[in-house]
Design brief:
Layout: H1 5-13, E1 18-24, E2 27-32, H2 33-50, E3 57-61, H3 66-78, E4 81-83, H4 91-101, E5 105-108, H5 113-118, H6 120-123, E6 127-130, E7 158-163, E8 173-177, H7 178-191, E9 199-202, H8 205-214, E10 217-219, H9 233-242, E11 247-250, H10 252-264, E12 274-277, H11 284-293, E13 298-303, E14 312-315, H12 321-331, E15 333-338, E16 343-346, E17 357-362, H13 376-379, E18 380-383, E19 390-401, E20 407-412, E21 417-419, E22 422-424, H14 426-432, E23 439-447, E24 450-457, H15 462-467, H16 471-485, E25 492-496, H17 511-519, E26 528-531
Parallel strand pairs: 1-10, 3-4, 3-5, 4-7, 5-6, 9-10, 9-11, 11-12, 12-13, 24-25
Antiparallel strand pairs: 1-2, 7-8, 13-14, 14-15, 15-20, 16-17, 17-19, 18-19, 19-20, 21-22, 23-24, 25-26
């Protein structure tokens, strides 16, 4: 078996259907399933000529485009292992990731050539291949397609190596086999079912593979997907309209920026039918806003992790007023019922409903081990004995199940605050504050035994700061905060210019950075104390 066999089937039965679209230099480009397979065949032949073999680990260091997926699929076809290191995580993390895997080859392009020259880890890679020698750009004439067979590999043969974000520790290398990827695509297809003529815009690479395996058209957004919160929303809105997109799978930060733009311009997009969002916290305020600008769309929030995707999901229409009230009073964020293909438990001892503990998952689409076992000790646990023994993945997230079997998220286990007032998770505060009109982002940390509420306002202009500095404005703001977070029993409020978030999804708060700034007394403009009870 080989994962690429699915593409060959689509090339036969959906030959002239568009498989992939992108936008380069202001021009839309597309490729059919037939032409995609032809280019994959040609690229696989050229990779072999260049020195890539079965089992070779090949770092793909090219800017995201249709050509990127041609190279990726060509590597699958010859039984090589594709390595993808996310440059958005920073140069040091990239170096560690590449050093950990020790690729045999690297494929680069003009845009990434300079980065490859700077990286000592990439310089040490023996075989360096310029992408233009492997795949011709879409729209250019190609050579005659060679006759070449698909490499026969087993279900346990490695296909893809990616990395965790490392936001809560060192990045870990995840090896996905051909069998694992096929199983994951089946689960995604069942959980996020497509329609035959869907045209899908997605910011998440694993879902591009899913779209291709399901035989629907995938569109790559006209933006830098390494910074989903900083996209040029006008371009994306125009692309959605131009490409007749009716389905979106994207990170919350991407959809927040897009919907903010549409609200500001008083634009609605009734053609969107289904929108799925995950990869970061999906708060009710965002779903409400999307409901306004995408009036005909079914909105679904997905919970998962790099090691297990998806875990649970929930349709916005099924969230009732009681659920919202629970969130706004510190009860956490509703993630929905776990999908049928996954086993989920709370804590090693499987805690009863409403008891908070670490979320553990197991299933065929849950990664059971990391490369060389590095990271297993912290995140994998065996429960049971004999034939009942099973490997569970520790997500590192705290949560609980309610009486209906629905999962509620409380945030990272490592961020828990414990004091004489009880236990609290910063994420409870973040979820509760998601609908406070004047707040962009909020969290709570403990410093020197004090619970400090940190608030990032929506408007950060100089004139707004002056306007909000008066006693009346300050009192109104404090009254709003007190009403929203009275249950928290906080000691102090600080208004900050920006609460740092992760680089991959631009939505997960980096608690260690916040605490560092608090403890090292950064300038008052970052942490201005506006309420400090005696």
């Amino acid at each position: 078996m080989n994962l690429i066999e699915i593409l060959s089937e689509h090339a036969n039965f959906r030959a002239e259907q568009i498989a992939l679209k992108d936008c380069r230099s202001g021009k839309d480009r597309s490729i059919t399933f037939r032409h995609l397979e032809e280019r994959v065949k040609l690229a696989s032949k050229r990779l072999v000529v260049a020195g890539v073999k079965k089992n070779s680990r090949v770092l793909i260091a090219v800017s995201l485009s249709i050509e990127t997926y041609v190279i990726l699929l060509a590597l699958f076809r010859i039984g090589a292992v594709a390595v993808i290191a996310d440059a958005s995580l920073g140069f040091c993390t990239l170096e560690k990731s590449v050093t950990m895997v020790k690729p045999d080859a690297v494929v680069f392009d003009n845009r990434t050539r300079f980065l490859c020259m700077l990286s000592a880890a990439v310089k040490n890679i023996r075989l360096k291949i310029f992408s233009d020698r492997i795949v011709s750009q879409v729209g250019r004439k190609t050579d005659t397609v060679p006759k070449c067979t698909i490499e026969d590999v087993g279900s346990e043969h490695p296909a893809l190596i990616t990395f965790t974000s490392g936001s809560t520790g060192a990045p870990k290398a995840i090896v996905r086999t051909h069998g694992f990827l096929q199983q994951q695509q089946k689960v995604i297809a069942k959980s996020l079912p497509p329609q035959p003529h869907d045209i899908e815009l997605t910011t998440l690479p694993v879902f591009v593979l899913s779209a291709l395996s399901q035989g629907i058209t995938a569109v790559l957004p006209d933006c830098n997907m390494q910074k989903p919160a900083s996209i040029k929303a006008a371009r994306i809105a125009a692309q959605i309209d131009r490409c007749r997109i009716n389905r979106i799978i994207a990170a919350p930060a991407f959809l927040q920026t897009l919907s903010d733009f549409l609200i500001d311009k008083k634009i609605t997009m009734p053609a969107l039918r289904r929108i799925y969002t995950g990869g970061g916290p999906v708060f009710p305020a965002l779903l409400k806003q999307m409901q306004t600008v995408f009036p005909n769309a079914e909105l679904t929030a997905i919970y998962g992790s790099t090691e297990a995707e998806p875990i649970a999901h929930i349709d916005f229409r099924s969230i009732n007023k009681k659920d919202l009230a629970r969130t706004f009073s510190g009860g956490g964020l509703l993630a929905g019922k776990p999908i049928a293909e996954i086993e989920l438990r709370i804590g090693d001892a499987e805690l009863p409903p409403y008891k908070i503990g670490e979320i553990l998952v197991s299933g065929k689409h849950v990664v059971k081990t990391y490369l060389n076992g590095i990271g297993n000790a912290e995140t994998k646990i065996e429960i049971g004995s004999g034939k009942q023994k099973k490997v569970w993945h520790r997500t590192g997230d705290a949560g609980y199940l309610d009486s209906e079997g629905r999962l509620w998220l409380m945030g990272r286990c490592s961020s828990k605050i414990s004091d004489e007032r009880g236990e609290i998770y910063p994420f409870q505060v973040e979820a509760a504050g998601s609908e406070v009109i004047s707040i962009k982002r909020v969290t709570c940390l403990q410093s020197n035994g004090r619970r400090i509420l940190l608030v990032e306002r929506k408007h950060q202009s100089f004139f707004h700061e002056i306007a909000s500095a008066g006693p009346k404005a300050r009192k109104a703001f404090l009254d709003t905060i007190s009403a929203a977070f009275g249950w928290l029993q906080f000691d102090e409020i600080r208004v900050v210019r920006a609460i740092p978030v992760d680089m991959r999804h631009n939505s997960k708060i980096q608690y260690s950075q916040v605490l560092y700034r608090l403890n090292h007394k950064f300038p008052w403009t970052w942490g201005q104390v506006i309420h400090h009870p005696a």
